[in-house]
Amino acid sequence: MQTSQRTDQQRATERRRKELLEAADRVVLRDGPEASMNAIAAEAGITKPILYRHFGDKNGLYRALAKRHTDALLASLRTALDSADARRDRVEATLDAYLTAIEARPQVYRFLMHPTEQESSDTEKGFDAGRQSAPLLRRLGEELARIIAERLDLGPGGDELARVWGHGIVGMMHAAGDWWLGERPCSREQLVRHLADLLWGRLAAAADMPGGPGL
Amino acid sequence: MQTSQRTDQQRATERRRKELLEAADRVVLRDGPEASMNAIAAEAGITKPILYRHFGDKNGLYRALAKRHTDALLASLRTALDSADARRDRVEATLDAYLTAIEARPQVYRFLMHPTEQESSDTEKGFDAGRQSAPLLRRLGEELARIIAERLDLGPGGDELARVWGHGIVGMMHAAGDWWLGERPCSREQLVRHLADLLWGRLAAAADMPGGPGL
DNA sequence: CGGTAGGTGTTACCGTTAGTAACAATGGCA
DNA sequence: TGCCATTGTTACTAACGGTAACACCTACCG
Question: Which of chain B's residues have a Cβ under 8 Å away from the Cβ of A107?
Fold first, then answer.
């Protein structure tokens, strides 16, 4: 029968694709995000054209690779967001989940943050001003925005507000996490508390330094 | 006299360097951050090796180029931070200054956010986990941290807190700005207000959506 | 049985890139 | 005049992403 055979072929192809992705994963995690297609092909025991047949181009391979890791990270963040009872605890748990992930596997983090300049397709060749951030950040931002809009009563225009906050919070988490991972100026728990304090309006409530120009 | 002559030479060299930087600027702003060294040399009316003599490698040129724009942006942000009287107005003015800058010259913004993988030098070849962000963001974060630590009375451990907040706020501004620049979901003024609301603790104060699981 | 279609795999190449070696010309200075 | 530094060139290397052309195997189908 043609269909069942076709299905067998497809499964074999998918299995092969998965093997190639795992080889690529090993290389990227060993050599960093700039790993060459030659190196990946060699790790998989084959040569370049096969990679190109499976993934189209380097971006295709990297997008497939990033999707796996991004899905995993997103799942753990969603779990954290549903964990505790108090809002502050949930926010802290989510921040902590993100920081724990990037701390545990910095190479994965480094790869995911690498801008892969996903195909522009619709933009008219030249200047897409935005889209500078890694796709991971965009996805996290949108996801968080959805959750905020669903769970918080923000009144009229709440959806727009939720999206701004989603991207803003993710950006805060990312930048602080990146800096923290490089310099390790404090414990993870303390960083989480500091960031939650910021979100809880402590910046607005703090007193001016006596004698200064104030902020 | 040897010293004065040496000074003349140095000045000539610096002027030449400046000319080359201006040519590079034109090309990068026209062709994007991936402009080739050949293209830059051609724009300057010379050939590659001269560029390499002046700037060492591509990163050297790009770092020199980025410094000028970063200095300019930082100056305008500092001005905004000293503008109004109320803290909320200052924060809004600063956010607005940043967003105005990236809106007015998105090519410059795009170039500055391009990760230039500045020389690692001290890290032992392979894994610097952090340092993923563009140098511009690090610098903005450190600068903001300094100002916060100087002007706010945050009690013991305030310096550490200020640094976390500095990088966190800059990251928030960057991610939200990048998303906004790409999708233009609202006016600049509204984005500024939304972000300031976030920093003013409105996330913590918002009511749960009635009937939902809450956040 | 032989043909044909589709998948896997190869070698050998292309165009472009960052970066370099080797050499020529200019101009001030002893 | 001879020396030295600087500016400039041409011509190259090594590596990269990507592709064309071809060989092989296997399975279905007349």
Answer: 127, 129
Distance of CA B65 to the CA centre of its chain: 12
A160 and A181 in a common domain: yes
What is the pLDDT averaged over residues A168-177?
98
Ranges of beta strands (E only) in B93-158 are 152-153
B130 band by pLDDT with thresholds 50, 70 and 90: low
pLDDT of residue A130: 62
Q: What is the pLDDT of residue B69?
A: 95
Residue in A with minimal Cα distance to B186: A160
Instruction: Considering only CA atoms, name the residue closest to the C1' of nucleotide C17.
Output: B36
Confidence class for position A214, pLDDT limits 50, 70, 90: confident
Asked if pLDDT for residue A125 goes beyond 70, the answer is no
Residue-number span of the structural domain to which A166 is assigned: 66-118+130-203
CA–C1' gap, A14 and C2, in angstroms: 32
Q: In this predicted structure, what is the pLDDT of residue A41?
A: 97
Domain count, chain B: 2
Please give the average per-residue pLDDT across A204-211, as a whole number: 91
Kindly state whether residues A48 and A105 are assigned to the same domain. Answer: no
Same domain, B149 and B183: yes
The reply to whether A212 falls in a domain is no
CA pair distance A3, A121, nearest whole angstrom: 33
> Is the minimum distance from the CB of A12 to strand C below 7 Å?
yes
Which residues are B208's β-sheet partners?
A152
CATH code of the domain containing A30: 1.10.10
For residue B153, give the nearest of A127, A199, A207 by CB distance.
A207
Cβ within 8 Å, pair B161-A213: no
Q: What is the DSSP letter of B207?
A: E
Q: Do A178 and B150 touch (CB under 8 A)?
A: no
Neighboring chain A residues of B178 at a CB cutoff of 8 Å? 130-133, 167, 171
Query: Which pLDDT score, from 0 to 100, does residue A110 have?
Result: 92
Query: CA nearest A33: which of A111, A134, A142?
Result: A111
- Look over chain B and give the mean of its residue pLDDT values, rounded to a whole number: 89
Residues A102 and A24 in one domain: no
A178 and A138 together in one domain:
yes
Residue whose C-alpha is closest to residue A168's, from B183, B56, B154, B197: B197
A2 lies in some domain: no
Separation of CA A50 and C1' C1 in angstroms?
Answer: 33
